[in-house]
Amino acid sequence: MPSIERSAVIELRPVEPADLDKFFEYQQDPEANQMAAFSARNPADRGVFDHYWQSLLNDKSVIVRTVTADGEVVGNLVVFRVDGVPELNYWTAKSHWGHGITSAAVELFLREFTERPIRARVVKDNLGSIKILEKAGFRRIGQVQDFANARAAVVTEEILELT
C-alpha cells in the first residue's frame, strides 16, 4: 500500500461499519500493539474487538471518529471520560506513521472538541505520540504505572493535558 504524502487531505468523520474491518486489520500489527501497549490481550480475537467497538459506538458519552487521508481509512480517534475528564486516544495504521497524518487529525479534532482540560496517556517510550500531543499543546502533568496487555508488563505512562 503506498504511503500518503504530507499534503494529503486529512478528514474526521463518524465511524461506518466497514471502518471496523480496517481498524481490526491495523490492530494486527505487532509493532503498533507494542507502541500502543494497552490493546487487547489477543488482538486477533475478532469477537473481543467487535464487543469493544460496539460498546464504544453505543455509548453516547464516547466520541469516536474515523481518520481518513485522501479518503482512505487510516485510523481513529476516541474520547471517553476518566473521572469526569475527557481523555483522547488514537490509533493510526503503522503504514501511515511519520507522515503528519496523526498530528493533523489531532489538530482537527481539537478544533471540533473545545472542552478543556482534555488529557491523554501515552507509554513513556512512545516518543512519536508524545511529540504529536506536545505539538498540539498538551503538557506533561504526571505519570502512572499500569499493566499493559500488549507488553505483558507494568509500564509507565505519561499523562498529558491540554488546558
From TrEMBL:
N-acetyltransferase domain location: 10-161
Any one Pfam family match given in the protein's UniProt record, by short name: Acetyltransf_3
Keyword tags: Transferase
UniProt cross-references to Gene3D superfamilies, sorted A to Z: 3.40.630.30
MF (Gene Ontology): acyltransferase activity, transferring groups other than amino-acyl groups
Keyword Glycoprotein: no
Record's protein name: GNAT family N-acetyltransferase
Species the sequence originates in: Arthrobacter mobilis
